[in-house]
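Progress note, sequence design subtask.
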């Protein structure tokens, strides 16, 4: 059996034309000799979580490609090596980026396609899927952000943790409330090296996982935890009941947030298996 750490046989980097410039994409083609079993667009997390997840994204795409699933990894507008700056990013632009990626992948494979969303990328995948129920065959969430406002509050706190003393000395914002007020007034704020706008903050603030799942789409929720025997949090349980879903629990590190590079082979294997089943192959 090929190990989860083996690279894809064929990886095609290219720029996908889109609104306001192009988007960098990496396409992991189905392995030679494998029948095409469908395709998945990988929807990455937000900010530094995206960078820390790149290794896992590559390994996941490689594993799926070996199983006959073509995978497209896309850097959204203002992210990674795509056009634009995060300060100018809009949720609607990101929504359109994922739509373009789905269209490209379907035209390339002539097979069912789906979305694999990680963290905030899960909410984006859900948002896209709810408008495209006729052409998405599978929807997988990995440790989805459940509440956009709570998530962005935690993100803003990174700035406080990094420079509260200097902010006090310079007269800058010293609380999340002050930062939110400045953003609402149209200022840009740098948080953990990322320049954030009030418009993007407001869009993410308004997201919540408890919206209805798309009808007719096979959905799986994967939750990576440190201890598989422990109970899931009340917040997860509440959303799971709203979705009528039982999360697939996988033991492993929170690779999107660990300071060191980490991976979760069990997640890679399970996500590949569930995708094959969801796509009907």
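Output:
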């Amino acid at each position: 059996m090929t190990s989860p750490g083996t690279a894809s046989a064929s990886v095609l980097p290219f720029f996908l034309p889109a609104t306001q410039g192009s988007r960098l994409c990496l396409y992991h083609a189905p392995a030679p000799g494998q029948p095409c079993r469908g395709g998945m667009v990988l929807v990455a997390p937000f900010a530094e979580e995206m960078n820390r997840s790149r290794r896992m994204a590559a390994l996941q795409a490689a594993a799926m490609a070996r199983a006959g699933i073509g995978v497209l990894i896309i850097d959204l507008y203002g992210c990674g090596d795509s056009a634009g700056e995060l300060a100018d990013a809009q949720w609607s632009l990101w929504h359109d980026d994922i739509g373009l990626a789905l269209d490209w992948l379907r035209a390339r494979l002539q097979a069912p396609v789906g979305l694999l969303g990680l963290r905030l990328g899960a909410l984006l995948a859900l948002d896209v899927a709810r408008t495209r129920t006729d052409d998405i065959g599978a929807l997988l969430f990995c440790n989805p952000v459940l509440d956009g406002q709570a998530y962005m509050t935690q993100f803003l706190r990174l700035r406080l943790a990094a420079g509260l003393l200097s902010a006090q000395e310079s007269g800058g914002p010293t609380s999340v409330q002050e930062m939110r007020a400045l953003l609402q007034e149209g200022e840009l704020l740098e948080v953990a090296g990322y320049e954030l706008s009030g418009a993007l903050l407001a869009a993410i603030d308004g997201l919540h996982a408890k919206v209805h799942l798309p009808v007719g789409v096979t959905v799986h929720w994967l939750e990576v935890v440190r201890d598989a025997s422990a109970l899931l949090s009340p917040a997860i349980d509440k959303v799971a009941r709203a979705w009528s879903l039982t999360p697939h629990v996988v033991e492993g590190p929170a690779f999107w947030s660990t300071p060191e590079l980490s991976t979760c082979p069990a997640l890679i294997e399970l996500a590949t298996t569930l995708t094959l089943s969801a796509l009907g192959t």
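The first helix runs from residue 48 to 66. Work on this subtask will continue into the next period as scheduled.
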